[in-house]
Write a structure and sequence with these properties.
Length: 288
């Protein structure tokens, strides 16, 4: 409960929390059963174990059965960095994106997370919320309203588009500011809903800027061009408006053990790394 941030909920609603222990398959099945009984269960667990260990239950009990279950993958990506490869959740978006009927949301800051949780509760059907444990600055204005399936342009641009979600969004915004100092205008697109995908926003970005860099705290393998965000964007552009792309993430390897910040730097998932990828994709030589 502590890892999922549910301690205060347990104190306030002690009869509405079921702790199943280390049994993720059972947890998803119990959630589906509660949904069949008319409840709206939020099934919370470490993203690495919730998605990998209980993948069959997510596929059959939740998605295939269209159960009204809300899956919360906690500490996603490299959030459990010091615990090593067993706890890194860098494949979850790839295998969940292949499952039908499952809405996938990756919020970028506290405001979007709060609104996404409410949106998930309000909609009918299974939802996966990919939640980070890494503190991030606010990227949305106070008046922002989250809409499932809609990407948000956080910064306009004409030369290249940076597409990110989750904890990578603020880094993409920081990279855009670095690119402005290089004379390049970078659009920043927050693609917080991975499924259903905002195809129009992706096509518009490709047509307007002519180049795309995707940034994700996830493996770049598993599908056309990439497993999660990068793969989804590559699929969308390949069939409608092909443009040069760079897909940033964990390049098909197990991530080593280390702090989250060290790991992000190790894989180039920093504002500077994103800037360099954008310069490369538009044909500007990167200074050593």
């Amino acid at each position: 409960m502590g890892s999922s941030g549910l301690s205060r909920f347990a104190k306030r609603f002690p009869t509405r929390l079921v702790n199943v222990g280390i049994a993720e398959q059972n947890m998803v099945g119990i959630g589906a059963g509660l949904a069949n009984g008319g409840k709206i269960p939020f099934v919370c667990g470490a993203a690495c174990f919730l998605t990998a260990r209980a993948l069959e239950q997510i596929k059959v009990d939740a998605a295939y059965s269209q159960a009204n279950v809300k899956l919360c993958g906690m500490s996603s990506g490299l959030g459990y960095g010091p615990l090593g490869p067993t706890h890194h959740s860098i494949e979850d978006m790839a295998w969940l994106r292949a499952i039908a009927n499952l809405t996938i949301i990756v919020p970028a800051d506290a405001l979007e997370t709060a609104q996404a949780v409410r949106a998930a509760a309000a909609m009918e059907g299974p939802v996966f919320l990919r939640l980070s444990r890494t503190p991030v600055p606010d990227v949305h204005p106070p008046e922002y309203v989250f809409q499932t399936g809609s990407a948000t342009i956080l910064r306009p641009g004409r030369d290249v588009t940076l597409i990110a979600n989750g904890a990578m969004v603020w880094r993409a915004l920081a990279a855009a500011r670095l690119l402005a100092a290089e004379g390049l205008s970078a659009r920043v697109l927050n693609l917080s809903t991975l499924h259903p995908l905002d195809l129009k926003a992706i096509r518009d970005a490709a047509e307007t800027t002519g180049a795309i860099v995707t940034v994700e705290e996830h493996s770049t393998r598993g599908g056309l061009g990439g497993g999660g965000l990068g793969g989804a964007v590559a699929e969308a552009t390949a069939t409608t408006c092909p443009v040069p792309m760079r897909i940033l993430g964990i390049p098909g390897t197990f991530a080593p053990t280390g702090s989250t910040e060290w790991l992000l730097e190790y894989f180039g998932l920093t504002p500077e790394g994103i800037r360099d990828a954008a310069l490369e994709v538009v044909g500007v030589k990167v200074r050593p």
